[in-house]
Write a structure and sequence with these properties.
It is a single chain. It contains six helices and seven strands, in the order αβαβαββαβαβαβ. It is an alpha/beta fold. The strands form two sheets. It has a five-stranded parallel beta sheet. α5 links the parallel β5 and β6.
Length: 109
Amino acid sequence: MSWFNRNSLSATEAAAALDNGAKLIDVRTAAEWKQGRAVGATHMPPQKLDRQMARLEGDTVLVICRSGSRSGRTAARLRRAGIDAKNVRGGLNSWQHHQLPTTRGGSRR
């Protein structure tokens, strides 16, 4: 398994991991979050991550953004802190492409 595959999952793999207890955090802006997000995601912008990191310890954490770039950087940051974090490759764009469940609105979760 390559480094890329160990540290990231496809959207469909991420959806299956959610069904098995993984946590999904969305690191996009508040405006992006309100426009739509993956069902089951928790909004956790990178600037608030340090305050929230303790909530993630001991869990498998999936990180999603729009395209996978910001979430890749955030997942790497979480791994450096000792958290089992994986990037969702292709982000919400891929999630929607695979017709996985999404929702809209302003709720944090």
